[in-house]
């Protein structure tokens, strides 16, 4: 049965097939991530107003095909899109990495609204004049993991309950996704030794960004030697709990 619906979507990826047709991967505000086809999109400016471009937010009218096996984008209008960002290849590359991650991990209808808002916030942050850390795409993965219910425990030590103290080293237990304090790092209650050492500054920063929108992230500290620790902690966590590894320009299943 033919069904029609309207929703707002952010375009994650676009591809061509045949002469005038496009397929799009979109994250819809209520429907989650879907693939839709835009027939005749390459020549129909009337129906699509030239708004089909990566990272644009568009208002769409979509029709489900007779057998329900594909979605047909009937009409779209531009709501917002990157401007300054399109001229900044470095930031556009970081934004693209964030979009690839979402594509790889998938977004259900349940998380759709929150993730949609996150993407709009990422675009606004990248459009702004403020500094954006080179680690932004990695921080983004941590934020997304938290939104999908995989928030790591970066506060009290999960063995003794001690809070982090300034100047003290913490140990991030990657498989448990929990912080262990310095005193408990060798405790027999620690199940494995898959640990990443996190200095206080790095720990505090990761804890902050895991709970807040990117536009509200404080400037990333000069991590120095901690930088690698942050990357290892997040990469290890994403690989262990979400099963994804970034390798040679792609996310692959671990
Ligand atoms: Zn402890």
Q: Structural class, from helix and strand content?
A: alpha+beta
Q: What ranges have pLDDT less than 50 throughout 5 or more consecutive residues? A: none
Q: Shape, please?
A: elongated
Bound ligands: zinc ion
Instruction: Give the proportion of residues in helices.
Output: 25-40%
CATH C-level class of the largest domain is Mainly Beta
- Biggest beta sheet attributes: 5 strands, mixed, barrel
Q: C-alpha Rg, in Å?
A: 21 Å
Biggest sheet strand line-up: 1-2-3-5-4
**Tally of distinct domains:** 2
- Please trace the helix and strand order, writing H or E for each element: EEEHEEHHHEEEHHEE
CATH fold-type name of the largest domain:
OB fold (Dihydrolipoamide Acetyltransferase, E2P)
The CATH architecture assignment of the largest domain turns out to be Beta Barrel
Strand segment tally: 10
DSSP summary: helix tally: 6
Name given to the CATH homologous superfamily of the largest domain: Nucleic acid-binding proteins
Task: Please provide a brief summary of the model.
With 254 residues, this protein is of the alpha+beta class. The protein has two domains: 1-132, OB fold (Dihydrolipoamide Acetyltransferase, E2P) (Beta Barrel), CATH 2.40.50; 133-254, de novo design (two linked rop proteins), CATH 1.20.1440. It is 32% helix and 27% strand.
Describe this structure in words.
This protein has 254 residues and is of the alpha+beta class. The protein folds into two domains: 1-132, Nucleic acid-binding proteins (OB fold (Dihydrolipoamide Acetyltransferase, E2P), Beta Barrel), CATH 2.40.50.140; 133-254, de novo design (two linked rop proteins) (Up-down Bundle). It has six helices and ten strands, in the order E-E-E-H-E-E-H-H-H-E-E-E-H-H-E-E. The strands form three sheets. Strands 1-2-3-5-4 form a five-stranded mixed barrel. A three-stranded antiparallel sheet has the order 7-6-8. A hairpin with a 3-residue loop joins strand 2 (21-28) and strand 3. The longest helix is centred in the middle third of the chain and has 19 residues, at 109-127. The chain is elongated. The structure holds zinc ion. Zinc ion binds at residues 157, 159-160, 162, 181, 183-184.
